[in-house]
């Protein structure tokens, strides 16, 4: 998925621009939502203590782009997010912390998406359930949690810091740039 760019003049060269992941945000709630994208690279990941693991902070793989606009009922928007981003997506209901604390979270570890390791994502209610959420990836798995009791197969339950014992809620996607769909109130 590279786009060639040709430079003309005294010399010629072909350059390649890398693409990023496409994220579609859909609001199926009966009220306006405020989706937020936050970086958590080394904010919560246990890989942060392992140099070379992809968990070391790097501004080049942080998301520094625009935040999604508030979405009214049945509205959608699309943004592009860096290909090696680690972070959270959530609805800022007014009771969430700056990184989504106390709220339902979509969690993404996209720095794992190389030729050998799948990209990982999940829904977490560990710090609190606030909204139903569905995450889907083109050509891959999806996960949905519509209520506080959706079970470990679909999301980490409130207060469970054990990771459901086996990280059962975590889904994987194949390497490469993907299109992700995050649906609020699925």
From TrEMBL:
Keyword entries, A-Z: Signal
InterPro entries named among the record's database cross-references: Osmotin/thaumatin-like_sf (IPR037176)
Signal peptide: 1-19
Protein name: Thaumatin-like protein
């Amino acid at each position: 998925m590279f786009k060639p760019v040709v430079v003309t003049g005294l010399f010629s060269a072909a350059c390649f621009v890398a693409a990023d992941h496409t994220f579609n945000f859909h609001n199926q709630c009966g009220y306006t939502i405020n989706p937020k994208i936050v970086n958590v690279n080394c904010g919560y990941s246990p890989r942060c203590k392992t140099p070379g693991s992809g968990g070391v902070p790097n501004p080049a793989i942080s998301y520094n782009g625009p935040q999604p606009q508030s979405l009214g009922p049945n509205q959608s928007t699309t943004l592009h997010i860096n290909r090696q981003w680690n972070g959270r997506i959530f609805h800022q209901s007014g009771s969430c912390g700056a990184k989504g604390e106390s709220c339902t979270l979509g969690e993404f570890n996209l720095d794992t998406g190389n030729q050998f390791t799948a990209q990982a994502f999940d829904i977490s209610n560990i710090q609190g359930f606030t909204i139903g959420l569905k995450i889907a990836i083109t050509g891959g798995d999806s996960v949905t949690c519509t209520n506080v009791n959706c079970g470990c197969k679909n999301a980490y339950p409130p207060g469970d810091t054990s990771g459901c014992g086996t990280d059962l809620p975590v889904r994987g996607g194949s390497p490469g740039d993907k299109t992700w769909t995050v649906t609020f109130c699925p």
